[in-house]
Each structure stands twice: as structure tokens, then as C-alpha cells.
Specification:
With about 290 residues, the chain is of the alpha+beta class. The protein is built from six helices and ten strands; from the N terminus they run αβββααβαββαββαββ. The chain binds adenosine-5'-diphosphate (ADP).
């Protein structure tokens, strides 16, 4: 600071330091401002905790993604082996194996879909491919995908659906990915015996999907942060739950690109409600930052 103030050192100097209380990382910098004879310097302090956390998370992303791909792949291999060995004698074994292979293949599709969408967003050019969407078909696909997981985890999964569905215009795959991420999270972050309710409301103007769970909940301080890419809540119950911190960021991005949004109400240890709203006839919005 002394040499910057006197102008001896005119270069900008920055250092990164851990906060004394261990609660974050600060970047402290100093730059000479000296004009004529007046000694002066600016000292700036920036909290880069989030940036640091995001870059560390990004570094771990490839490892994490590989890990997430491995579980479904292993299941597919094991059940394919089972079907090959015993399937021709036992139709029940064959049916179960095909069912697991089908579910796991869909899970792989979703993980890869998330990765591709992330890459697209990273490249700064996320695009929607708009078409007429059949909501009933989306809902029954969602039910099929999550029934087994819910009963495996001893969770009650309820769907509260409208009597009629309007004609919807949207990017089906991206919208499905967004809803999947939210419903998948609700099941993931709700301990056994809890419940998850998916409520769908749709009229000529707007589609609203409320996903309510009786899960671990999210601290008020973190309720905005969980929508940031790579952010995972600072909750030690997460250590046993796999995740990349990408799902919510992508889901919100998709909703916003459709001209809608995702909001969250949550109480720690009680549960959360994520609400997705999109216009029924979406007119895609230009790229929106997540
Ligand atoms: P992840 O792959 O970690 O699940 P997401 O972007 O989908 O990533 O979610 C970000 C974080 O938000 C999660 O790590 C978790 O801390 C929190 N979260 C998301 N959904 C829920 C939920 N339904 N209940 C509690 N916490 C949640």
C-alpha cells in the first residue's frame, strides 16, 4: 500500500486471502492513483467465495458426472447379464430386467441431456425448439419414470391434475428436463416416509407446476443460491446424496427462456415447494443468464 500510495509501484497488486473466521475468500487489491504530487491509492476488497466455490465445483464436475453415469450403466450391465443368463427360463426375471434397463437408460438420457444443455448454455447459445406439446403425455411419462423410485424410497408420490389440458406450445424436451430436475430433487431430498406432490394447473394463458415435498428444506440464506450453477446447499445431509448442482440452474434457465420462471418457498426440516410457471403459448425469450 505504501509504495502504491507514493507512486513507486504503479502496478495493480492483488492477493487472495482466507477470511479470519474461515467463512470465505477475499481478494484484496491495491492500485496507485497518484496524480502530480498527491499521494493516493485505491484499496479494493472483493468477496470471491462464490467464484472460488464455483470454480472448484466445476473442476469436480467431470469426476462427478462420470460417477453419476456409472450407477445406471452398472445397473444396465448387471440386469442385461441376468436377462441373458436366466431370462429365457423365467419370464418374471426377464420382465424385471427389461424394466430396470428401461428406467436406467432413461436416467442416462436425462443426465446426458443435462450435460448437453449445460454445454449449450456455457457456449452462450441456448435455443428453444418450439412445437405443440401434449401435457397429458408428459405427465404420464413423469409418473412412469418416478413411481418405482418413490416406492423404493417409501415415499408417497401424488399427482394433482387439471380436468382439461390446453394446447401448449413449448420446447418439449427442455421443459421436460426442467420438470424432471425439480421432481427428481423433491424425491432425492425427501427422506423415507415423506411425500411429494406434483400439482399441475393449466389454462389458455399459463401453466403452473407446483412440486411440494416434505423433505430436508433449504435454509433462507441459500434459497436464491441453489439456483446458481454448481451450488449445493451447505447441509451435511447432502453428503450421501449425489448431485452436480446444475439441475436447478438449468431448470430456471429453461423456464426463463420460455418467458416464465421458477420460484421457491422452503422451510428447513419441513420441506419445499418449487413453482414453475410458463406461458401456455411461449414466445422464446433471447438468451437469459442463469
Ligand atoms: P443437485 O445436483 O445438487 O441436486 P440442483 O441444482 O438440482 O443440484 O440443486 C441445487 C441444490 O439445491 C441441491 O444440492 C440441494 O442443496 C438444494 N435442493 C434442490 N432441491 C431441493 C429440495 N427439493 N429440497 C431440499 N434441497 C433441495
Amino acid at each position: 500500500v505504501d509504495t502504491a500510495t507514493t507512486g513507486e509501484n504503479r502496478q495493480r497488486v492483488t492477493v487472495e486471502m482466507q477470511r479470519g473466521d474461515g467463512a470465505g475468500v477475499l481478494r484484496v487489491g491495491v492500485r496507485s492513483l497518484r496524480k502530480g504530487d498527491l499521494p493516493a491509492a485505491v484499496l479494493f476488497i472483493e468477496d470471491i467465495t462464490q467464484q472460488k466455490a464455483a470454480s472448484e465445483a466445476r473442476d469436480g464436475f467431470v469426476a462427478q458426472a462420470a460417477h453419476e453415469l456409472r450407477t445406471p450403466l452398472t445397473n444396465i450391465r448387471l440386469y442385461a447379464e441376468e436377462a441373458i443368463e436366466y431370462g429365457s427360463d423365467d419370464p418374471q426375471v426377464r420382465a424385471k430386467a427389461l424394466n430396470v434397463i428401461n428406467t436406467e437408460a432413461r436416467r442416462l438420457e436425462r443426465i446426458v441431456g443435462n450435460m448437453l444443455s449445460t454445454a449449450e448454455v456455457e457456449a452462450g447459445a441456448p435455443r428453444l425448439s418450439m412445437a405443440e406439446v401434449r401435457l397429458e403425455a408428459m405427465v404420464s411419462e413423469l409418473e412412469d419414470d418416478y413411481r418405482a423410485l418413490a416406492s423404493e424410497k417409501e415415499l408417497t408420490l401424488k399427482f394433482d391434475l387439471p380436468p382439461k389440458y390446453p394446447v401448449v406450445f413449448a420446447d418439449r424436451d427442455k421443459l421436460m428436463l426442467a420438470v424432471h430436475n425439480i421432481v427428481g430433487n423433491a424425491l432425492k431430498y425427501t427422506p423415507a416416509k415423506g411425500s411429494v406432490t406434483v400439482r399441475l394447473d393449466a389454462d389458455e394463458k399459463q401453466i403452473t407446476v407446483d412440486v411440494t415435498d416434505t423433505g430436508i428444506g433449504i435454509n433462507p440464506d441459500e434459497q436464491e443460491k441453489v439456483f446458481e450453477r454448481f451450488y449445493r446447499a451447505n447441509d451435511n445431509r447432502l453428503s450421501t446424496v449425489q448431485g452436480t448442482g446444475l439441475g436447478l440452474a438449468l431448470a430456471r434457465q429453461v423456464a426463463r427462456l420460455h418467458g416464465g420462471d421458477i420460484t421457491l418457498k422452503s422451510e428447513l426440516n419441513k420441506g419445499s415447494t418449487f413453482t414453475i410457471t410458463v406461458p401456455t403459448h411461449a414466445k422464446p425469450v433471447g438468451a437469459v443468464a442463469a
